[in-house]
Amino acid sequence: MSFCGDIDLVGHRKPQSYYRNVLWGVSDLEVMVHAPVPAGQHEVVASWGWPMELPSWSWDAPAATNLSVNVYSTHAFVQLLVNGKPLAGPKVPVSASTQYTAAFVVPYLAGSLTAVGYDAAGKPVANKTIVTAGKASAIKLTADRDVIRADRSDLSYVTAEIVDANGVLLPTASIELTFRVTGASGELAAVGSGDPADAGSFYQGVRTTYLGKAVAIVRPGTPSTAPAAGEVTLHVTGGGMTASVSVRMG
User: Fold this and answer.
1) 114 CB contacts (<8 Å, ≥6 apart)?
2) What CA–CA distance (Å, rounded) separates 28 from 73?
3) Backbone torsions φ then ψ of 140, nearest 5 degrees
4) Distance CA 41, CA 22 (A)
5) Which of 117, 155, 113, 105 is nearest to 130 (CA)?
């Protein structure tokens, strides 16, 4: 299965979309960290592909492991701070000639990684921080819409994320989740993740998180029951955690 393009199978942004947001003026600063490459292996990126990098500072890597960090920015200079301390060396210039990219090699140290953008006069004008997640603590459920029509053609997409006690996403979390719907006339239409290698059925109520996330679709009515106004609740369990979110149909 191809993994090209900016959006994955369930509508989430892929790494290249962060870079293009900078090129298109949607964002002026993005910080992306390349996933550690296991010893003895190397990454192969196809002509339409993109390196495996994420806006995350949560990695299963020993302290001091060198990680590649790309900062995409339209500011004149960029600097990185690890736990509030600047990396050694001068600020890195960024321009069209560098493809609006500043590349760094950073020894991994749990805590925070901050990218700071500076204008041509050397004044800090923007910053973005990513932090290390703790242990998996909860399943965070977010519905794109929590009120939909009582109509079979209307849907609510619910993203399930594995987060720590502070709500920080764990992109390394690979946890099997079970989904079910209760309440008024409604059904679990499908579940999925952005994993291009997962060939599991969308119509089963079980999915393993990919990059810490999975998606469920709630649909009014069932194949044998007409939609009706009311509330349905999506329940999600996995990894010793439970969560639920309600969607109103009317």
Assistant:
1) 31, 80, 81, 82, 84, 127, 128, 129
2) 5
3) -95, 125
4) 31
5) 113
User: Which tokens hold the place of 238?
Assistant: 């996995």
Cα 229 from Cα 150, distance rounded (Å): 6
pTM beyond 0.90: the answer is yes
Task: Report residue 57: phi and psi, to 5°.
Answer: -120, 35
User: pLDDT tens-digit profile of 209-233?
Assistant: 999 999 999 999 999 999 999 999 9
Of 26, 108, 111, give the one whose Cα is nearest residue 72. Answer: 26
Going from N- to C-terminal start, the domains of the chain cover: 15-131, 138-249
pLDDT of residue 135: 96
User: Same CATH fold, 138-249 and 15-131?
Assistant: yes
CA 81/CA 192 separation, integer angstroms: 36
CATH of domain 15-131: 2.60.40.10
pLDDT of residue 2: 55
Q: What's the fold here for domain 138-249?
A: Immunoglobulin-like (2.60.40)
> Which residue has tokens 């990126």?
45
DSSP states of 99-140 as a string? Answer: TTEEEEEEE--SSEEEEEEE-TTS-EEEEEEEE---S--EEE
48-61 per-position pLDDT tens digit: 889 999 999 999 89
Kindly tell me the burial class for residue 158, based on how many C-beta atoms sit within 10 Å of its own C-beta (0-12, 13-18, 19 or more).
Answer: buried
The tens digit of pLDDT for each residue in 145-196 reads 999 999 999 999 999 999 999 999 999 999 999 999 999 889 999 999 999 8
